[in-house]
Amino acid sequence: MVSRRQFIKFGVAGGLLLAAAGVARAQKGYRAATGSDGLEVLTEGDGEVLAAVAPAILAGTGAAGASLAAIVGSIDRAVAGLPPHLQAEVRQLLALLASWPGRRLLAGVSAAWPQASPAEVAAFLERWRFSRWALFQQAYHALHELVLAAWYARPDNWPAIGYPGPPALG
Amino acid sequence: MIHDPIRAGLASGWKVTDASKLERDLALEADVAIIGTGAGGGVTAEILAAAGLDVVLIEEGPLKSSSDFRMVEAEAYPQLYQESAARKTLDKAITILQGRAVGGSTTVNWTSSFRTSEVTLGYWRERFGLGEFTASALAPWFERMERRLAIAPWTVPANENNELLRRGGAKLGIATAAIRRNVSGCANLGYCGMGCPTNAKQSMLVTTIPAALERGARLVCLARAERLRLSRGRAEGLECRALDARGVHPTGRRVTVRARHYVVAAGGIGSPALLLRSGAPDPYRVLGFRTFLHPTVISAAVMPGPVRGYAGAPQTVYSDHFLERGPIDGPVGFKLEAAPLHPVLFGMTLQGFGARHAGLMKSFRDSQVLLALLRDGFHPDSPGGNVGLRDDGSPVLAYPLTPYLWDGVRRALLAMAEIQFAAGAREVVPVHERAAPYGSWPAAKAGIAALPLEPLLTRVVSAHVMGGCGMADAPQRGVVDADGRHFHIENLSVHDGSVFPTSLGVNPQLSIYALVARNATALAGALARKPVTQGA
What we know:
Oligomer: heterodimer
Number of helices of chain B: 14
Mean pLDDT of chain B: 97
Distance between the termini of chain B: 47 Å
Number of helices of chain A: 7
Largest sheet of chain A: none
């Protein structure tokens, strides 16, 4: 049967992440109810992380400039539509990555996010993707899904993959 | 302009409350409160309303209809799916697609319609004491719902995405067959998963629910059933929270319903969760356990020419070859079907990132996708998952992927790759973080044999949540009896896929419709015979 143990395992791991993220939030003077920079639920720091991660995930799509900048806003809107428990997880993950210990010690990225090279970010993503810790794998998948969903939701990005968009109804 | 029967009904005076707009609390009384408006709640509402009972329907999601269904993923997933289609198991290894809107998953499903198989019913009779569940006893209920929902063979040629399953199977001697669909005047667009824009799909949204509303039933949407007040073996009331227009945060307004009888139809995760939040008696620790998913693995293929998997009816060909090869309680079997391709879901699902992911996406138009749905729940090593509650009361499913299931996953990835190469694939890409595109069947065979099959490396998804409030002949083995009546709460029934004691081995909608038609008819008789007593 399943397993209270499974609940507890993730509970403990999740708890550590939460504790770390809580510290990060406190350091950044996080305000729970309002975002910044026209963002609804994400903070400026969250946006910096995503702005650095997105080009690595989208390398090869031709993503650049304005379409890349729009990604952060799209992700913010998507996160705002998630149930509260998922919003909290995403914000905790991004806050953790935005924090110095999160970036340096967990992600292994030495430069501040705006200065991080795509190669360095890609290496971090690859480490988390194949980490032996489920928590890092889960975090990788969260970033993967947020960025790719936001990108392929945009009609501008459909012609490159040969998707004509929905048919017109007569 | 396509006629929108929901907007027309609202204009004609249907009693529908959008709870997000409530400015004060709402208290309702009714003969029957139905929680959930999907396959179970919809059928129940129509039958009880036709019997003259006063019905209130409670729905967590919004009321959206054909005018809103613009075939755009970025709109459909947040509006119409649980957790914006990002619902996952506790360990995040399985993504679960479930509807959350009026009509429930029937508003967004792909219309595949199968009767419960005799081999599944036989297992239920033998292991769960459900002696009444024979194919012949259920046949009239299947026939009734097939007529009601226009379930019939689909005679339009399959799209290329489905046709490739048939063609590849034929080359290998793997039998395939056509899937029946619940459609009427289908335009073969391919966007069933985003809500049918032409009202061809005979979902609950356009059939049973309008019929109930025409008879005076009341519907409250964007209201989340929080708990049933239970006392001395009876339900005394239902407490709901109104949600904001996006269905994310409670507004602070409350909706309460007092009824003679309560029908829980919130689906395979929602129903056990509501009973857990309500502190329902569970002396044998069965509530929320034995939750099944048809864990599903995915194989993408790049074909030599256009497939256009986004266009045309999404699921029209299937194969039960790998279900029928062994006994139901032997090594896990799987059903093969095709899956429609749309950019967001495909992009999120494909493994990897950067240039390799982008390379796979460049073949989007020429890609074909097969699914293998594992038939879980028929073996001691496939006990299913269990539903628990987070601190905020929201439900979460823990579902262990056992070695028994991984054995089936490997066989399924192999079978799908072989079929895709037989159908002419240039490359096959099992959806797994360690799988490279394979250029030939021998390469795929060797590659798949060596893949580490683990959670979060292997992509596993589910669109079929079953069980958690299983039915049985005795409370030691189930939450409800063969008629869906709760063993410990006399005026409470469960009418949805959560009552299945195992998975089904088929897409579940028709099994839910038929079983619920049977149980709702019995319930209507029982409630009609009793004199109406004043409030609980």
